[in-house]
Amino acid sequence: MTAPRVANDLNTALHRLFAEDERVILLGEDVCDPYGGAFKVTRGLSTRYPHRVRNTPISEGALVGVAGGLALAGDTAIAEVMFADFVTLAFDQLVNFASKSTAMYGRHLPLRLVVRCPTGGNRGYGPTHSQTPQKHLIGVPGLALYEASPLHDNHTLLTRILDGGVPAVLFEGKVLYGERMFTGGVIDDLYGYDLADGVARIRLHDPVPPDCVLITSGAMVHRTVEALRELLLHDEIVAEVLVVSRLYPVERAPLLSLTGPARRVAVIEESTAGGTWGAEVATALHPHLWGTLASPIRLIHSLDSIIPAAAHLERQVLVQSGTIRHAVKELVHG
Amino acid sequence: MINNAGPSNSAAVLDEGVGPPSLSRLSDADLSSMLLIRHFEKNLLKLFEQGFLHGTTHTCLGQEYVPVTVTSLLGDADHVFSNHRGHGHYLARYADAEGLLAELLGRAGAVCGGVGGSQHLLRERFLSTGVQGQSLPVAAGVAWNLKRSTPGALACVYTGDGTWGEGVVYEALNITALWELPLLVVTENNGIAQSTPTGQHMAGDVRGRAAAFGIAYERFTDTDVTRLRAALQPLVEQVRHMSRPLVVEFVTHRLGPHSKGDDSRSPAELRAVRAADWALRYAAAHPEQFERIDAEQSRRVEQVVAEVLARPLTDWSPR
After folding, report:
1. CB-CB: which of A57, A71, A109 is closest to B171?
2. Domain count of the fold of chain B
3. Domains of chain A and CATH, by start
4. Which of residues 213-242 of B touch A (CB under 8 A)?
5. Among chain B residues, CA nearest to A52
6. Which of B118, B143, B132, B151 is nearest to B48 (CA)?
7. Which of residues 57-96 of B touch A (CB under 8 A)?
8. For residue B156, what are the domain limits?
9. Do A92 and B116 touch (CB under 8 A)?
10. For the segment B258-298, what is each residue's pLDDT rounded down to a tens digit?
11. CA atoms lying within 13 Å on the CB side of residue A141
12. What is the ipTM of this complex?
């Protein structure tokens, strides 16, 4: 059986959530049928659940605020911000209301709230529709950040997020929507994967001790796997990849147990440098790996630039498989 | 004139020749509620001077009749969203001077463990936050929930005149009108946003802004609780039973400073504001009842202050 595409898997996950919990409400711009969302992730929901799915005006601040109000009143609220770039318009609702409400009234107040954000570039949408803005929301007490991946079942992920009772943002790499989910532990002829404690590990079907461990999140999986093959076949470097689904707070324990005695570690993200998720991961791991690392954890980012629209210019700025391969070679060979 | 705004969005113009209408006799309960708020706030300013209060506070001296009027039209199922100037909103609903003062002083028995303080209260269906306009969409979300789960209940949001400068207010009003949500927006237009007169921060007026969304609107300059309640009651019923939003603007007066000692109004403006104080006028109209209840509430708050100051500090740790 062919695995579903990531957008379909997310859609199926949402349909299951709606069927399981009658308090689930979804709102966002253009999420209703027949359009079904800019990336078709919400297709079919408004037809099946007309009273629980709403198109909103172009009002990200209000739609995230409304979702917060729904969650406050006991609903399970799922909001879609059409492009992650626009989550900046909902910054107050996320940073000053939803996240703080879980604690600022002197007691724990669980909120079943997730804001879904189609994220990232390599799609030619240009400077205001291509960003990876995770870093702007990192380190907010009471706000959890997740990223969808082709290795993590989306129903499991969404259930985990909502049951956590902590307001969350789920970033969904736009490059993934048309790709198929990986299933059955197989990536390709060379690589397989397994899942433990929410972290997916990609390694050779017949594992050998790696020269390098690469840590990344969903949107970078395909580019990282491509780099993995090149590194193995052309550079004789063996690397393993850890793909996390919760970005923040960083889950240190599974990363530590899976990086094991690795002497070289890199974190790959599409974001520009400066106050990033990758830096958080490095900060979390350094004290524990200090004794075994041959060199500091390497951060692999996009260039410090806006994201151009033209394909050839966009490729030049964003992390590609070649960027990863080059950086890993430098890391391993010094 | 109190400020340089047009008459429709300024605080009530005090024309000495006409004067405000006389105040009807209220029930002891209503007057007690208003004077509880008055004495609570006056004692807060005193506690600041004495160094017992930490941070800041925003008093609603002069505006007490607004929450007392509004609260009397609300039921237990209704949600209230309050703001930075929210002590009156809370006390009108719960008469819990002990819990609120304990919250402000970080003492045992505090409504929110001393974590939220003056601007961040949560009790049952009462919630306040300190960012202007932030509550409007949240209240719209709650109103949507109520429309589905508890028809006839509403969400009530208090705003000031300054709140209307925030863009998210309009996003929320648009959604509320489109989705026919039972949302009651109460605007306490005291003619001044911190130090900025309404005429310097608001083009047009609240009426026009509500009209732009086709939202029902009513404006009151009266301070008489009996008349206000009678006028407001059928409008609030429409919010409940027709499930539609309503904006109510109370043209009112803030007797005190924005927070503690930051009043930049001229002596003439302050004289005019004080002359409009409902309490002065009520005391003149109904001296026996006023003096009796004023003394009762004064004693009550003094006792609360002494009792709460003697309590131990609250205990809280971040998760």
Report:
1. A57
2. 1
3. 6-176 (3.40.50.970), 191-333 (3.40.50.920)
4. none
5. B148
6. B118
7. 79
8. 62-97+115-200+227-281
9. no
10. 887 778 899 999 999 999 999 999 999 999 999 999 999 99
11. 8
12. 0.96
